[in-house]
Amino acid sequence: MPGALDGIRVIDMTQMISGPVAARILGDQGADVIKVESPGVGDLVRVMGSRDGFSATFATSNRNKRSIVLDMKTGDGLTWMKKLIETADVFIQNFRPGAAERMGLGEEALRAIKPDLVYVSISGFGESGPYAHKRVYDPVVQALSGLTSIQADRDTGRPRMMRLIVPDKLTALTAAQAITAALLAKERTGKGQHIRLAMLDATVAFHWPEGMATHTWVGAGAKRKQAQLAQDLVFETADGYITCGAVSDSEWQGLCRALDMPEWLEDPRYQTPAGRMLHAPERLTATQEVLIGQASQYWLDKLDAEDVPSAPVLDRDTLLDHPQVLENEIVVESEHPVGGSMRQARPPERFSETPSSLRRPAPVLGEHTDEVLAELGATTSEIDRLRGGGILG
Amino acid sequence: MPGALDGIRVIDMTQMISGPVAARILGDQGADVIKVESPGVGDLVRVMGSRDGFSATFATSNRNKRSIVLDMKTGDGLTWMKKLIETADVFIQNFRPGAAERMGLGEEALRAIKPDLVYVSISGFGESGPYAHKRVYDPVVQALSGLTSIQADRDTGRPRMMRLIVPDKLTALTAAQAITAALLAKERTGKGQHIRLAMLDATVAFHWPEGMATHTWVGAGAKRKQAQLAQDLVFETADGYITCGAVSDSEWQGLCRALDMPEWLEDPRYQTPAGRMLHAPERLTATQEVLIGQASQYWLDKLDAEDVPSAPVLDRDTLLDHPQVLENEIVVESEHPVGGSMRQARPPERFSETPSSLRRPAPVLGEHTDEVLAELGATTSEIDRLRGGGILG
Question: ipTM score of the complex?
């Protein structure tokens, strides 16, 4: 069965993570994604953290795409890019504001060729304002959005980063959803449009519900001291680490039974979810004091028997072999023509009728240049001429 | 102008965060989202962290929805739920596996009423396997997915949580995108389907590209020691904290100039992006030693002049007043009928033709029960009868 986005063509002129992962999600769902790169190294992620020119991160962020190289600084390069745009539903770029226009690939220029195009601009900070001109990487957005402050060390107050590129990838998910919504609107109205998305905006919107809960109500009735939802619920046991937690009354009662602490059931501070939230510090300290007394599996069995949410803390090795990870078939192995045997996570959503799939390994730079140009009507001699001129890398 | 999902009706029978935020994203884009809750407290997030029955997190996770109360344990409640399903495009539930079926709201039962329904099941761990029966909260998925291990303290090795409910909310984004893709497929084929999404699967897929880069290539050629993309790039200055970083050669050269360290330009370890990644620990230590010598603004000005990605570390108070946050109009103020004046982040994506909007404040429990039942054809006396029976709370 074809994927949900079968028949949709996406031109991915993005680099790094936010744009490439957004386009890959669409590719996982069946879109024909063509990644356009410049002659030279191409997308920098191809080599970042790699010793032989093909990074693991590139491989998993750019599967289900074809790669073509076009030198957009030449008239011929731009001409063939525009022939490609004529066949496309979506064009995604994440240059700094103004750069696409200077290259001749602004919205106006492309809409003249393809009136119903969904044109997508992903930026770091937006298209105007004091940061608009700045280069962006994920850590910059983590600092500016408040994420590093939310993650600050509880003892020293030193801001900390999330050790994943969370802003880049939540921007990718946000972009993929917005693009899909625009494709649905286009299907219903016949009209394309321009989607603008800043990583800063996506990150603040993402963390707001609990991250800014203390800053949501304003004015006289403001409750700035509201507890934050996200606690550090890692507990040390006699032989490792586990997590466990209770929100509802029944879960709390189960936790008290599992930990053999019936006196907590009578404690006036802990009678309601709101009370337990308010008194989280002393509650978590007391929980830690009990859990250190026995091994992880002892507690996990007792907590599970009482229906209390709990899990072992897995590292990246034990993750691969965990029975639930195996049951869900999360990790798939395949052969990459350059990198060799590889593991990756399958697309997480399971469609009953339009399954997402891993159809193509991430391409080497320019792997499909000839194929795509031929589809656009270029003859062999034309392709040879372009290659001779350095336009195809 | 109406939103991209104008005319789509979503029945949101979810609680906590993953499902409610997914449905809210669709509501932000114009869908008519009807949140169905049981008599009593309703969604637990309504009261979590709140002292007066309306939490900030609920307010921002459930805007753009209507709320109805139906007791699904009664025949009348189920009957009216099914009348509602007849009018819907999407039904989302995040009960534990099997619970929706036991309530009479399994896929088969609902598809008999509405053949082209997009039926969405969000679970913690999947529908089978050793964890399928378990209750889930965000920390449990953080531990089981490896996130807490990725976030581990570099000095002590103690696993740490990300202090946002990252798995819940990336699952929400993943679900919203998949639902939108299924709506597009339905628009084109006329067919509905069942989307299944586990938080565990969504989280592993999210962190994999850089989080599992060391575990991607397998076998003889495996490069397990590959550096990880995400460093903790928070640096202390003479008066606070900033972030800065350089990936490309030109950015690295700019950083060396801004920090007045021309000797780094000659250092053989730092000549290529791959080399700088490989030698990150000593490079970051040396960078910290320089940056501590001057105040934040001194460095930010010099870094910006050299076009090096950089930013101050903002906390949640300074975030609200930062010029770029103001320029982007990220934060909007509005009045909530119960909570009073509130701030929240607007939907981050900007559609040129189908703008997302904040149309409705998050509803109080059952605020729209009568309105929705009347739309379904219930008479006033029928509604009175249902209310008298306790079915509407």
Answer: 0.94
Question: For residues A272 and B235, what is the distance between their CA atoms, to the nearest angstrom?
Answer: 41
CA dist., res. B197 & res. B352, Å (int): 30
* pLDDT at site B274: 80
* Both structure tokens of A334: 């395949």
Q: Which of A6, A48, A288, A299 to mutate to test the interface with B (most CBs of B within 10 A)?
A: A48
Residue B247 has pLDDT above 90, yes or no: no
- Which among A168, A239, A301, A384 is annotated as catalytic? A168
Closest CA to A369 of A66, A61, A86, A23: A66
Contact predicate B308/B264, CB 8 Å: no
Shortest alpha-carbon distance between residue A385 and chain B (Å) = 31
Between CA B155 and CA B160 the distance in angstroms is 12
Best of A140, A199, A249 to substitute, by most chain B Cβ atoms within 10 angstroms, is A140
- The pLDDT score that the predictor gives to residue B42 is 93
Distance between A54 CA and the closest CA of chain B, angstroms = 10
| Contacts A207 to B, Cβ<8 Å | 164
Predicted structure pTM score: 0.94
Of B149, B177, B348, the CB nearest to A176: B177
Q: Are B169 and B21 in contact (CB under 8 A)?
A: yes
Please write the tens of the pLDDT for every residue from A236-272.
999 999 999 888 899 999 999 999 999 999 999 999 8
Average pLDDT taken over every residue of chain B: 93
* Encoded amino acid at A281, one letter: P
Give A361-378 pLDDT, tens digit per residue.
Answer: 999 999 999 999 999 999
In the three-class reduction of DSSP (H, G, I as helix; E, B as strand; rest coil), residue B196 is classed as: strand
Q: Which residues of A touch B195 (CB under 8 A)?
A: 349-352
Compute φ and ψ for A335, nearest 5 degrees.
Answer: -105, 130
Could you tell me how many CB contacts below 8 A there are between chain A and chain B?
Answer: 543
Establish whether A168 is a catalytic residue.
yes
Q: Quick check: A324 and B130 CB within 8 A?
A: yes
Q: In this predicted model, what pLDDT tens digit does every residue of B60-90 receive, in sequence order?
A: 999 999 999 999 999 999 999 999 999 999 9
Indicate if the pLDDT at residue B318 is higher than 80.
Answer: yes
Catalytic residue among B168, B315, B321, B370: B168
Distance CA B190, CA A250 (A): 43
Nearest CB to B344; choose among A216, A328, A341: A216
Q: What are the tokens at B305? A: 């002049």
* Domains observed in chain B: 9-207+363-388 (3.40.50.10540), 234-318 (3.30.1540.10)
